[in-house]
Amino acid sequence: SEHLQQTGIPSGSQDKVSVPDSGPEMAEPQVAVAPVVTSKLSVKAPEFYPSGYNQNFNQNFAESSFEDRYDGYLTLAEYVQDFLNHLTEQPGCFETEIEQFAETLNGWVTADEALQELVELIYQQATSVPNFSYMGARLCNYLSHHLTISPQSGNFRQLLLQRCRTEYENRDEATKGDETTRKQFHAFVLFLAELYLNLEIKGTKGQVMRAEILQEGLRELLNALFSNPVDSNLICAVKLLKLTGSVLEDAWKEKGKNDMEEMIQRIENVVLDANCSRDVKHMLLKLVELRSSNWGRVHGTSLHTEATPENDPNYFMNEPTFYTSDGVPFTAADPDYQEKYQELLEREDLFPDYEENGTDLSGPGDPYFDDIDDEMDPEIEEAYEKFCLESEHKRKQ
User: Partners of 360 in the beta sheet?
Assistant: First the structure.
């Protein structure tokens, strides 16, 4: 008891502390370890979550199988909106979770009103959340093929296109509207462009094709944007053409139309006449340059023919670059390649003990290098002596 009191531990805790037997090896009393301080801060405290993190949302998608997740939602809108938010934050989950999402909707969306509500929720997410237009278009394509409900008012794809047509009809007013109106309209334009690229429609013969109605719609949207050439409208047109220009031009050429040439002509007229900013004009000129290079596409050679310098413009792309004695670069594509390359080999023969990087491989007393005169050129020697005298003079001063 006296020993415990000396070490600062109350005698009442003797049953919790093991006191070793006294003996010759115990020269000093042991010092008690201070108790560990336990934090009262919960592991779920907001301090541990990054800004913008929605803890309640993630709890809905955790600790339960996807098959049972919709059981906790009261309405279809709540379930769909949570899934859209989840897809926005984790787009990589699309492939693994879209199938179950569609199955859940097939059990829930059984009336016209529910299908209309579903279309509106996806449309709003795709046109109001930045960078969701591509994912929204992929989602629409999947649901258009996997939702079983097809009421008299129209199936999922038909209702979606009807919803897009509402915004499309107001294109002239939207391009002339205030900044907020134009911003909403531009988001719709880019979503429609993603739909054109991702929405697959089966033809009468079973072939997969793009929605032709969207192709015509994009052309009219471009006309509306160029008809009101303010900076924001022109930037939207540039984004639209960079995204879909190659596909649109190919489709128009198949029909024998020259619509892309007309678009390029309109762009050149805008650059010359419109009162847009210098940066926007530069963007438009870069777009014209991109189109002149076939939208940046490089056509590979045929699989059935061997690549040659005549049929493949990239034949010499990976060939090394050499330099003549005058420092002029040349490659295998040079007409005088063989002659210049032979000259290069002869130059290397003059220095057999040097690597390409200039490393001296010769040993001491090499007879070749012993014959080289180490004396400086008279002109260089005179300049060097003058430099030494000037340096000495400056040092004395």
Answer: 354
